Amino acid sequence: MTDSELDLVYTKLCKTLTAEGEAQAPLYLARLALLCMTELGDTQRALSLIEAAKLPASSAVTA
User: In which domain of life is the source organism classified (predicted)?
Assistant: First the structure.
């Protein structure tokens, strides 16, 4: 994926999340993640990406 294509996809994702609304964003992202994993079709790669996507401990939200 080129930088231009990545920018196009990222912009579409941002606009879609805005349209879905803050309350629906987590559900939308979970559904998107499941669809992407299905398309990926590689269990080990999906597990690796799940680990790679973890936020640093300092970014964790605390109540």
Answer: Bacteria
Residue corresponding to tokens 């690796």: 48
Rg of the chain, C-alpha, whole Å: 14
| Integer Cα distance of 27 and 52 in angstroms | 20
Quick one: tokens of 52? 């790679």
**Structure token pair of residue 58:** 């300092």
pLDDT of 3-62, one tens digit each?
Answer: 999 999 999 999 999 999 999 999 999 999 999 999 999 999 999 999 999 998 876 566
- Name the residue type at position 51: E
Alpha carbons 58 and 6: distance in angstroms, whole number: 27
CA dist., res. 10 & res. 3, Å (int): 10
